[in-house]
Amino acid sequence: MRMAEPGRINAAFHGRLGHFVLDAELSLPATGVTAIFGASGCGKTTVARCIAGLEHMTDGFCAVDGEVWQDHHSFRPVHRRPIGYVFQEASLFQHLSVRRNLSFGAPKAAGAQIAFDEVVDLLGLAALLDRSPYRLSGGERQRVAIGRALLSQPKLLLMDEPLAALDHTTRNEILPFLERVHERLSLPVFYISHDMSEIERFADHLVLMERGRVVEAGPLRSLGSALRPAADRDRHGDCSDRRNSVGKPLRMTAMPIDFHDIDPNRVAAILYRPQDDVDGLLAAFAQDLARSGERIGGIVQRNIRDGSGCQIGMQAVDLMTGREISICQPLGSGAMACKLDAAGLAEAAVAVTRAITADVDLVVINKFSKQEAAGEGLRDELAGAIAAGIPVLTAVPEKCLDAWNDFTGGIGTSLLCERGAIDGWWQDLSSRIKRARASRLPADAPAALLADHHVG
């Protein structure tokens, strides 16, 4: 372990901090995301602080990509270690704008490998640059903190439970942005967490710690025997292998609640064949509902064609904002196979999560197709919308019907790919929901209250 190897992170720390004894050794690739997992008090944060130079153990060694930061003869202080550290709390400078917070501490020399505009795009910060931190939500503040760490041009990013202080909904909003960072930046990341669902979502390597010791370490997928009990302890159930929405392997977590607790009338799937224009049908339906005053969220799909009618791209349209999101990567000149774009999918996932948080009247998720059937795409976001009890409308190709039924447990309504069938389902459902809500209001409730009480 006490060797400086190019392309690897080697560390060994032995000693006592107060009553806590640390006896940990690591040798990991200096690429991808390494998750450090274990119960509270097992030593996860202590290891990270030793790597950062915030703790100085006399019997310690640390080398990153062949560069020695600590050994028996030397100790590089924290300010000379090229590390970006993201804590649980964002700790932004309240007197500086988001733009100036991001730039604070960034090297002044030209030729930065991680550019300001790239970070702003990765983390969706363009609309926030001129705001003060006190005008940001918790999730926005943490995205700024991550951006500030990236712009310090680190050789290693340490993230110490960066989502622990956030609620469940906000965590789900940020995770797609972390996936984008992983996908687009070749930067090694140490991600500390006691939440296995976060780790499964985008980690490549896993370190399991217990009572100050490393008990197992290796590629995430190879630690099945250790990972499964850990997931069970975190109540994520028994799972099968799959790949997530940005193409990295992980295990499919159980749904957050049993779908049988959901009103089956609130879930509808349009069954369609290859010749059906289900994209246009859904887009027109959502647009008409929005015009009538219903609060619609989620995404619909729009195919982009050239002058000769050949398909050259795909967009997802955020129904709450109207934003167009490119979700497909062309495969060379004239080619248009459906290679989904990871960054675009992350934005689409955020659009669906935003709709769930806003408690809209109806969530539309364009399709449950082969990607979702295989555990990719927007499967998790679709599950979240159904679990929230919000009415959900999607489209399912006939060849994926069995996978859809497995996913939902057979609940829900199947609709013909016809506008009349969709309108009939929605009119019946929305009327019954409004009647049920009205019956729970006092008999003398103002008429305006009854009119404004939206479904969902």
Description:
There is one protein chain. The protein is α/β, with parallel strands linked by helices. It folds into 2 domains: 8-82 and 155-251, 3-Layer(aba) Sandwich (Rossmann fold); 261-430, 3-Layer(aba) Sandwich (Rossmann fold), CATH 3.40.50. Helix content is 33%, strand content 25%. It contains 14 helices and 21 strands. The protein has helices at residues 44-52, 98-103, 116-122, 138-151, 168-184, 196-202, 224-233, 278-291, 342-357, 370-373, 379-387, 401-408, 419-440, 447-452, and strands at 8-17, 20-29, 33-37, 59-64, 67-70, 83-86, 156-160, 189-193, 205-210, 213-219, 241-243, 249-251, 267-272, 296-305, 311-318, 324-326, 328-329, 339-340, 362-365, 392-397, 413-415. The chain has a 7-stranded mixed sheet with strand order 16-15-14-19-20-13-21, with helices on both faces. Strands 6-7-8-3-9-10 form a 6-stranded mixed sheet, sandwiched between helices. It has a 4-stranded antiparallel sheet with strand order 2-1-4-5, with helices on one face. The radius of gyration is 24 Å and the shape is elongated.
